[in-house]
């Protein structure tokens, strides 16, 4: 659906995005992840047309004369007119998108129902919770019936309830085969929702592939140890004895990662028995998107 080729953007002497290339496939959901300052927002702004690239190209569907007609965009910090109701706001935005009054009214009705705000249609936006405002923001991005949805950190500032509401809405949109690119710091959510993942760091692409391929590429055998006692001291001694392993510890739980599950099993069991650790359970773990993220950030 979209081909991005050698896209770069600089602001004065600061290179925000450098030589970025990737593609978005129709009906796929892609997670854009990276640390603060990685260039994620700048990349989204260039794709949406809000920022002009310094160099490179963005190729949309061949039949599209104005890409803005197929793009819905939700910024990280959406601005609303708090004295408006959601009904008034969506009607206003729809007319800005060149919908007739009749079309705007029908779309407003449909979208308020879709994002779960119909019962609040005549309430002032200023009294909305963060989750309600984000759902309204997504409705605003959908009001002109786009084919591509760009979302900048749609759940980052939300409490658990608001995050759940927005994630459920995004899952519904994904099931309708809408093409979605969204940036996020919540890697667990990305893992649950996305088909592809694009990882950026310092303005450059670090990883771009399907989630399944990323897991295969970065898969590392893991053992998850849970004990009746804190494991910090045991973990430090384990790394000294086996420097080829990596260990992460959180109180009474430790995740040990190595190159061979057979080696891990034998070595971890031996070290647990040697130190007389009271073990609750030992499980074979799986690589997560967070594991991949931390590994590629070290390079």
Automatic annotation (TrEMBL):
Gene3D superfamilies: P-loop containing nucleotide triphosphate hydrolases
Keywords assigned by UniProt, alphabetized: ATP-binding, Nucleotide-binding, Transport
Highest taxon listed in the record's lineage: Bacteria
SUPFAM superfamilies, sorted: P-loop containing nucleoside triphosphate hydrolases
Pfam families attached to this UniProt entry: ABC_tran
Segments forming domain ABC transporter: 2-227
GO molecular function: ATP binding; ATP hydrolysis activity
Xref: CDD domains: ABC_DR_subfamily_A
PROSITE patterns: ABC_TRANSPORTER_1, ABC_TRANSPORTER_2
Family note: Belongs to the ABC transporter superfamily.
Name assigned to this protein: ABC transporter ATP-binding protein
Species the sequence originates in: Jeotgalibacillus proteolyticus
Biological classification of the source: Bacteria, Bacillati, Bacillota, Bacilli, Bacillales
């Amino acid at each position: 659906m979209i081909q991005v080729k050698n896209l770069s953007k600089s602001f004065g002497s600061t290179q925000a995005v450098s030589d970025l290339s990737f593609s978005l496939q129709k009906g796929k959901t892609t997670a854009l992840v990276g640390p603060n300052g990685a260039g994620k927002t700048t990349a989204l702004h260039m794709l949406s047309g809000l920022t002009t690239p310094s160099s490179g190209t963005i190729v949309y569907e061949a039949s599209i004369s104005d890409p803005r007609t197929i793009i819905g965009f939700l910024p990280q910090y959406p601005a609303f007119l708090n004295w408006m109701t959601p009904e008034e706001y969506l009607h206003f935005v729809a007319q800005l998108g060149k919908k007739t009054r009749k079309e705007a009214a029908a779309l407003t009705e449909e979208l308020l129902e879709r994002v779960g705000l119909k019962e609040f249609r005549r309430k002032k936006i200023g009294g909305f919770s963060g989750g309600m405002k984000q759902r309204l923001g997504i409705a605003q991005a959908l009001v002109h019936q786009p084919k591509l949805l760009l979302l900048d950190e749609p759940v980052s500032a939300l409490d658990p309830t608001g995050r759940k509401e927005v994630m459920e809405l995004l899952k519904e949109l994904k099931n309708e085969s809408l093409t979605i690119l969204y940036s996020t710091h919540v890697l667990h959510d990305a893992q649950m929702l996305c088909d592809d993942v694009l990882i950026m760091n310092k303005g450059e692409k670090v990883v771009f592939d399907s989630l399944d391929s990323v897991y295969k590429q970065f898969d590392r055998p893991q053992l998850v140890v849970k004990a009746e006692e804190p494991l910090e001291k045991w973990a430090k001694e384990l790394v000294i004895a086996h420097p080829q392993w990596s260990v992460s510890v959180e109180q009474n739980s430790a995740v040990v990662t190595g190159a061979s599950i057979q080696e891990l099993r034998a070595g971890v069991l031996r070290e647990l028995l040697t130190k007389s650790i009271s073990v609750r359970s030992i499980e074979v773990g799986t690589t997560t998107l967070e594991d991949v993220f931390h590994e590629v950030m070290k390079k």
